[in-house]
């Protein structure tokens, strides 16, 4: 018997991005006659400070707390960003639905909207991802890559803050200068708007950036395009999409998953919400990651795209600083995509990816010992 028409309760993190993503799932289910309540759950990852989660070895830091509510029967399901999900899940849980994926690409966000190859030598780029750091240094070893944490809004504020604060200071000083030249016909005020008018024309995120203390000045930051889009910031910042061949995304990037106990309700949710193409592509990506045992501690990118009867797979495994890379491009049959993904991963491992992953795991373990 279908469970449609009865209320289902779904766990979500409480960040703005997580709530927006959960809202998309809620709306899609309600369009198909489900009644949905979203329940905010604090996770281990939400409790960490600005130290990199990868260095702390917190695999699944943003996932386990939500899943526990489902396993304990308190909630019916949990909504996750798929790239945050460990490849090893409890047997009782299934990915009941994988909705259609948003953009899987990474983007470079800069105050001026310049391209990666236009950044000056020594420029500082912020990212929280080991993969993005390795990819950046592989393409531009002259860059300085610094840690950057926080939700999408916070990261963008940290990028914009220095530029906006300098502009505010210039305008304030010039306004003082104008007052000092009151009645001087030869003085020309260089701005069209007063400081107050300029401030009123800023976006809300720019206003918040003006109030932020600057610890690190970033020339650019690298984020997931899906995060920018879902946060409603894509039209408020200047960014350059990065090639998915040179910057192969994280497995599952841009995709969501609804984790539930295996059963009738999960089947109903699957029927109305699952996107078969996205499920196949993300299954291939996560299978490669699982075979490599990369988890969240190794710089691994995997991107799969269905092309006709095949799935085109691109994968990269890096050393931490990006000097070494093992990459592969292969086509596997859609009808046997799981086995094909395993073969791709095994070939990668045999060509040196296994050693890079093991080195990354060793570095993460050592970092944890030193806490």
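Q: What amino acid sequence fits the structure above?
A:
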């Amino acid at each position: 018997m279908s469970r449609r028409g009865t209320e289902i309760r779904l766990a979500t993190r409480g960040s703005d991005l997580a709530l927006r993503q959960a809202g998309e799932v809620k709306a899609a289910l309600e369009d198909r006659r489900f009644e949905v309540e979203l329940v905010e759950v604090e996770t281990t990852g939400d409790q960490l400070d600005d130290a990199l989660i990868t260095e702390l070895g917190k695999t699944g830091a943003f996932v386990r707390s939500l899943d526990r509510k489902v396993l304990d029967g308190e909630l019916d399901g949990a909504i996750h960003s798929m790239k945050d999900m460990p490849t090893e899940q409890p047997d009782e849980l299934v990915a009941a639905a994988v909705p259609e994926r948003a953009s899987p690409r990474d983007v470079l966000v800069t105050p001026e909207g310049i391209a990666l190859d236009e950044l000056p030598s020594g420029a500082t780029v912020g990212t929280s991802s080991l993969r993005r750091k390795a990819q950046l240094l592989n393409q531009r070893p002259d860059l300085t890559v610094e840690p950057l944490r926080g939700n999408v809004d916070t990261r963008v504020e940290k990028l914009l803050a220095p530029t906006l604060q300098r502009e505010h200071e210039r305008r304030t000083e010039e306004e003082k200068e104008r007052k000092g030249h009151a009645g001087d016909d030869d003085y020309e005020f260089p701005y069209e708007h007063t400081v107050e008018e300029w401030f009123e024309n800023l976006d809300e995120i720019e206003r918040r950036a003006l109030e932020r203390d600057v610890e690190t000045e970033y020339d650019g930051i690298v984020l997931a395009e899906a995060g920018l889009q879902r946060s409603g910031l894509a039209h408020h910042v200047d960014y350059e999409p990065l090639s998915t061949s040179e910057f192969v995304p994280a497995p599952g990037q841009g995709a969501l998953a609804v984790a539930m106990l295996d059963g009738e309700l999960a089947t109903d949710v699957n029927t109305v919400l699952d996107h078969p193409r996205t499920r196949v592509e993300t299954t291939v990506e996560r299978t490669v990651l699982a075979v490599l045992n990369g988890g969240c501690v190794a710089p691994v990118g995997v991107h799969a795209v269905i092309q006709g009867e095949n799935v085109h797979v691109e994968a990269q495994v890096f050393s931490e600083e990006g000097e070494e890379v093992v990459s592969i491009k292969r086509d596997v049959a859609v009808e046997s995509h799981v086995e094909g993904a395993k073969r791709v991963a095994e070939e990668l491992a045999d060509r040196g990816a296994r050693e890079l992953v093991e080195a990354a795991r060793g570095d993460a373990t050592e970092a944890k010992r030193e806490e």
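Q: And what stands out in the fold?
A: The two ends are 52 Å apart (CA to CA).
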